[in-house]
Amino acid sequence: MMEEQVDVAVIGAGSADLYAYAQVKRKTDSCVLIDGGELGTTCARVGCMPSKALIQVAEDLHRRALFAREGIDGGDQLKVNGADVMEHVQDLRDIFVDKVLSTSTDEMGDEFIAAHARFLEPGLLLAGERRIRARRIVIAVGTSPLVPPAWKPFGERVLTTDELFELEELPQSIAVVGLGVIGLELGQALNRLGVRVTGIDQRETIGNLDDPELAQQAVQLIGKEMPLWLGQPAMVEEGEEGRLRVTAGDNRVEVEKVLVAIGRRPNLAALDPHKAGIELNQDGVPQFDPNTLQIGDLPIFLAGDANLYRQVLHEAADEGRIAGINALADKPVAFRRKTPLTITFSDPNIVMLGRHYSELDLANTVIGSVSFGLLGRALIMGRNRGLLRLYADKLSGRLLGAGLLAPHGEHLGHLLAWCVEQRLTLLQMLRMPFYHPVLEEAIQPVLRELIAASDWHDGPYPPDLEAL
Description:
This protein is an alpha/beta fold. The chain has helices at 15-25, 42-46, 48-62, 82-102, 161-164, 181-192, 212-223, 313-326, 376-381, 409-421, 426-430, 443-452, and strands at residues 3-11, 31-34, 112-113, 117-121, 124-127, 130-139, 143-145, 158-159, 173-177, 196-201, 228-230, 235-238, 244-248, 251-255, 257-260, 264-266, 300-302, 341-344, 349-354, 365-371, 387-393, 399-406. The radius of gyration is 24 Å and the shape is globular. The strands form 5 sheets. Strands 1, 2, 3, 4, 5, 6 and 17 form a 7-stranded mixed beta sheet that branches. It folds into 3 domains: 3-39 and 104-145 and 265-326, FAD/NAD(P)-binding domain, CATH 3.50.50; 149-262, FAD/NAD(P)-binding domain, CATH 3.50.50; 341-452, Enolase-like, domain 1, CATH 3.30.390.30. The mean pLDDT is 95. Strand 5 (124-127) and strand 6 form a beta hairpin. The protein contains 12 helices and 22 strands.
């Protein structure tokens, strides 16, 4: 079998890979894109997009709880057609997938290899019937959902997000095991659509929150909508009439389905990475530089979810660009990474940005909080639940990070993440315009509280005003 020589081989055709490949193509046509799995990206097929479609339907229906208070009659007559809901979600999912395909692999010729790749030796790949000798390699093979081996014999009754969005009908009952981002989002949405949901996590917190005040309030708010069993691992066994019996500590429930959302594992082992000199750690990833994405001193770059660094789409896009640039650079360039920003699309949204609570030097940090309970716009919307927490440096007054449990926190989170990225101080933020009535007004009293408690603000004027 003859070897094909290329400058760069990109393994995978997900979000990170497509951005990497686009960067490579700007400099050379001597490249290939290799993927033997389902195309269309994890985000569009089974992640960000179909989950948000389901969440939107659930939010639209849940709004009916406010109708009577607002003088709108008939809200109690609304009902859910589960088959139509899933068809709607799948239709939108297909639109998103088709959009990805039409602008990527559908337009490619021989440079796209529809096969699984594996290393034969350093720099040499076998992809289907083709042997590819590559000077540089970008790996972005993504991850697969974890399912405990003991649960696999239960077959289609145990779901991951890979299967959930293929359902033709909503289940009557489901246990969601794992209440991080995905489990919490989908569990709340399914519950609002009339599915009897039980949420389970062996941790004491939900939504990956590490700020104790936010974590406590999140459990209180979400726990009013559906039962949460926290602090005990889940066990699954056969129940009655084809159902599954799920237990956690002293709690027990029988359900039609179990949704497993306990994490994902990189798909790196299938590449035979040891043949390329790549050693994987216990989490299934090698040592790599998060600023260059280079694996050790090898001519190989690891991007996207497969490196387990920041598993969100905008980070995968950035990493694809970094890996693509460095795959053709004489010397890999170290890029400054953007301010971390994660959003859980629960209600209220859970947002963490910049430095997380667990990363703070609390002795040198000032923290301020405000509740959304009496905020005018939130009251009008009927969504006056949640808490905003800002973290600032004691010495400089610079915003370090924030945690939010907030209505439309996705927008507040972006605003605050941009402030962190721009290295703004609390005083500089307070000098920005705030309209009324808007949710952004919640930021003002926290800024004033933190400024009043400090001695570093710059001038004799009221802290949000400047002399002309």
